């Protein structure tokens, strides 16, 4: 029987089946990357809801696995050499799962380089900039009278959408076949609806992205992964 007791997080979120991947997450654009990848890859896993409240993400239990107090995080009981491994950072988790299975990460070294290139584009650009857009357009930052923060992130969101829209001309997926790059990018495009920011960034003007996001959301594994773990 697999023993995960060395991971302190399991004392707050005990596994029902310690022999499968343990997912600690919440359905945010970053959180669903892990659940969608697990669904697409057909890997057995158990999802634990870690809310964004300090009681969860800043608890000693969660910090023992991710000292950066952000979801998602995983424990794979069957890690390298058959030993359990804990991981945080959504991009790192996607790469790990892709390499573990040999899927969704490119057919050869060139394909893999392109997949990781676009994954890093999301991690370093699209995600952080859209997150700031949400803060200054919808959440607490929207109350700031100074218009410059909103203008900055609206402008940067428009720029990034233009980059991706141009790249997607004549393509179905970001880096050849469907990959972890798509799993990283598309949920952040979807976040514009949640932020109520589609109009302000000119979403409808990016026909390639509108079609791309529709293709992504049509995938059964995506539809399942977007709701894991359930919010309620």
- Helix/strand-derived class? alpha+beta
Number of strands: 4
- Average pLDDT number: 97
CATH architecture of the largest domain: Up-down Bundle
Low-pLDDT segments, ≥5 res: none
Number of helical stretches of at least 4 residues: 10
State the CATH topology of the largest domain: Glutathione S-transferase Yfyf (Class Pi), Chain A, domain 2
Order of SSEs, N→C? HEHEHHEEHHHHHH
User: How many domains, as an integer?
Assistant: 2
Question: How do the strands line up in the largest sheet?
Answer: 2-1-3-4
Share of helical residues = 40-55%
Sheet with most strands: 4 strands, mixed
**Broad CATH class of the largest domain:** Mainly Alpha
Q: Separation of termini? A: 31 Å
Using only C-alpha atoms, the radius of gyration works out to 18 Å
Q: Regarding quaternary structure, how should these chains be classified?
A: single chain
Which of globular, elongated, flat, extended, rod-shaped describes the shape?
globular
